[in-house]
Amino acid sequence: MDILVSEVGPRDGLQSVKRIMPTADKHRWIEALAQAGLREIEVGSFVSPRQLPQMADCAQLVAQALKIPGLRVVVLVPNFKYAQRAFEAGAHLITIPVSVSEPHSLSNIRMTHAEIIADVRAIVALRNERYPSVQVDAGLATAFGCTIAGPVPEDDTVRMAATMAECGVDTVNLADTVGYANPAQIKRLFTRLRQAIGAKSGGAHLHNTRGQGLANVVAALDAGVTTFDSSQGGIGGCPYAPGATGNIVTEDLVFMLESMGLATGIDLDRLLAARAVLAQALPGETLYGYVSQAGRAGIGTEDCMNPPLPLQGIRVVEFSHMVMGPSCGLVLGDLGADVVKVEPVGEGDNTRRLPGTGAGFFAAFNRNKRSLALDVKSPKGLALARRLIARADVLLENFRPGALDGLGLGYEALRPENPGLIYCSLKGFLSGPYENRAALDEVVQMMGGLAYMTGPPGRPLRAGAPVNDIMGGMFAVIGILAALQERQRTGRGQLVRSALFENNAFLVSPHVAQFAITGKPAAPMPARVSAWGIYDVFDTGDGSQIFIAVVTDTQWRAFCAAFGQPALLADLTLATNPLRVAARDRLLPSLRELFKTLTRAEISRICEASKIGFAPIRRPDELLDDPHLACPGAMIEIALPQGGTTPIPALPIEMNGQRLKKRLDVPRVGEHSADIASELGCDQKLIEELIAEGVLGADAPNAEQPQSGANDKISETASA
User: Fold this and answer.
1) What's the CA gap between 154 and 185, in Å, rounded?
2) Distance between terminal CA atoms of the chain?
3) Mean pLDDT score of the chain, rounded to an integer?
4) Spatial separation of the C-alpha atoms in residues 155 and 447, rounded to whole Å
5) HEC profile for 39-85?
6) Sign, Cα dihedral of 659, 660, 661, 666
7) How many angstroms separate the CA atoms of 710 and 595, rounded?
8) Cβ(318)–Cβ(396) below 8 Å
9) Which CATH number fits domain 545-616: 3.30.1540.10, 3.20.20.300, 3.40.50.300, 3.30.1490.20?
10) Which pLDDT belongs to residue 308?
11) Cα angle: 403, vertex 409, 413; to 5 degrees
């Protein structure tokens, strides 16, 4: 039995890729696929270039593909208007997406069932009248379920297939748009399809969201299906079906079919060579597939294997400044999300120019982001922002409550356009009497007990780092990840909130519990009753300081042996930790005299050899010379605003034994504005007009930029 593998990567794959692949590279890839033996390739979609800029060159690609001998050229069209263009371009086969789920249809092509049925009839009539050699197929999207509307009854799918057959399409294909189907469903529904519409029963378009793609192919084969869509490298996923991920990998599909004795006519070695063409054209884009990892004789596949980051493919729009919001965006960006930082036109985020203790904020928390300088207060800028957000998975903001609402960018205003959007607000306070107050890290440290616990009695002192800002950003990330997971089940986004004050309260919760247990308020840390006998900072003989911690009786014995103190070890009044705590007043002075006879380096070597807790007292800048942080991946080199670079600590996690890396340096103001505007459908002329009007700011060294107060209202009223 011969199987037709229809490559959909140039259309269904690329429509979800953010980087616009040049037309010449697309054609080179299509030619390589054809040389590998692909007989049918979906080269693009005739759609609005504003909606899908990646598809703006569809007519050109059709014209070029028609010159490839033996290749059947396929395109997708959402309605009658674009079907006319497809017919005129000369495509051999036109696929019309028809969603069984009406909510998905409204999200995908903005048409009701009645409207799309009428359009299909009109398209078939036009074909019959003027283009009789062109095949017209209906692709039933969400045939097996929809994350927007939930489960789709099989009867609905069969009825829609019968309606399409009655409209006159040549074949009806079924698509598992979100990749949730299982083999039993696949076999059952394709069997019913064949019973309902006979010879018009077509192929399978399957996604691999839950890893069942190839198993579903086998089930479809059992039901008599002989045509399968797939995408090289597994790229793709419906952008209008939250939770959908890549298509079945063409390489894996071909390998499996051929190993089962089913002929595809495709040369796997040449197919892997075509994959290399794709990888070269889309550097950094994740390509999936088991066959490529195993490799084939004569094919070098190392350039094709780009291990994915956990959040790759997640789009984030960041409206933020200072630390809390940017730290949230930083974590998401380091984990692989595409983070677009929206800044005012001109000088950008005010955080870039903070002096003193704030001078390092922007550099520390804004790598792995793209900068879009935009006047969101102007009508054109606001429209562009809303278009960007409509394509996003996550929006995060940390301005004063109501600031973005006043600009028309609040959650309730954006939800109708993007029901899957996760909108994360990072504020000073969560719901309650304080929720409209302005707040900063130091404010909540003072009112939340942390400053009281940090300084000596009567002298509250803020912590030496923006702990609430950073942890508030981390808790926001946790909420966002949970919301993304929930969206996989429901298809709906939600409002997520994180706050400084509640974060601070969480930090001091052990002291709250201590009061409940002991009946006594916790003393400030400098005046606390220590839980351990030796848990202090000591001066050393070379004028330095070191912290020593002896927290167990085993460590006490090791300490006495290492530092040559047999008398202390023999003293039964010091034998246990509670006894040593009671004897601190006489124990610590003798130890202080001991440590003054040794250098910090000598004490460190003894403690490390004896497995005793110790820490040299250092300034933050001294970490640049720390041998542990000199290990590969521990530090990330970033650009400085005054020129040059510096290493700063990487995100403090390892995944698969690897630290997370820098993909993008700290951006210049508007460095990526033109690219992002192009992705949103703006041509070069329009981009130049927006820059001239001060709506868009593009990075141009030594060039004057129009100044704008676009986001001043937001910046001036920021709270966190």
Assistant:
1) 9
2) 65
3) 90
4) 61
5) CEEEEEECCCCCCCHHHCCHHHHHHHHCCCCCCEEEEECCCHHHHHH
6) negative
7) 59
8) yes
9) 3.30.1540.10
10) 67
11) 120
SS3 351: helix
CATH 3.20.20.70 fits 4-304, yes or no: yes
d(CA 196, CA 154): 12
**CA atoms of 45 and 95, how far apart (whole Å):** 9
- pLDDT tens per residue, range 585-642: 999 999 999 999 999 999 999 999 999 999 999 999 999 999 999 998 999 999 998 8
State how far the Cα of 171 lies from the Cα of 74, in Å rounded to an integer: 14
DSSP3 helix / strand / coil % (the chain, rounded to 5): 45, 15, 40
Strand partners, 499: 427
Domain ranges in the chain are: 4-304, 315-440+472-501+668-716, 545-616
> In the predicted model, is pLDDT for residue 244 greater than 60?
no
Q: Indicate the angle between helix axes 23-35 and 58-65, nearest 10 degrees.
A: 30
Strands 171-176 and 201-206: parallel
Average pLDDT over residues 564-587: 96
Residues in CB range of 35: below 8 A, 6 or more apart: 270, 274
Torsion of CA 511, 517, 523, 527, to 10 degrees: -110
> What are the backbone angles phi and psi of residue 551, rounded to the nearest 5°?
-115, 0
Secondary structure E strands in 640-718: 645-649, 654-655, 658-659, 696-697
CA distances from 145 to 141, 180, 189 (A): 9, 7, 12
Q: What is the pLDDT of residue 285?
A: 85
Q: Which two three-digit tokens encode residue 354?
A: 């903070």
C-alpha span between 321 and 712 (Å, rounded): 12
Residue 230 pairs in a beta bridge with 7
Query: Is residue 47 a contact partner of residue 55, using CB atoms and an 8 Å limit?
Result: yes
Q: Which residues contact 718 (CB under 8 A, 6 or more apart)?
A: 321, 322, 398, 399, 400, 403
CA atoms within 13 A on the CB side of 269: 5
Running DSSP on this structure, what letter comes out for residue 9?
I
| Residue 648: strand pairing partners | 636
φ/ψ of 297, rounded to 5, equals: -55, 135
> For the CA atoms of 625, 628, 633, 636, what is the dihedral angle to 10 degrees?
-30
Of 695, 715, 713, 714, give the one whose Cα is nearest residue 705: 695
Distance in angstroms (rounded) separating the CA atoms of residues 720 and 717: 10
At 706 the pLDDT is 43
Share above pLDDT 70 across residues of the chain, in percent, rounded to a whole number: 93
- CATH H superfamily, domain 315-440+472-501+668-716: Crotonobetainyl-coa:carnitine coa-transferase; domain 1 (3.40.50.10540)
**Residues with a known catalytic role:** 469
Distance CA 89, CA 44 (A): 12
**Could you tell me the pTM of the whole model?**
0.62
Of 263, 238, 268, the C-alpha closest to 250 is 268
The residue among 100, 644, 645 whose CA lies nearest residue 635 is 645
**What is the CA 549 to chain-centroid distance, rounded?**
41
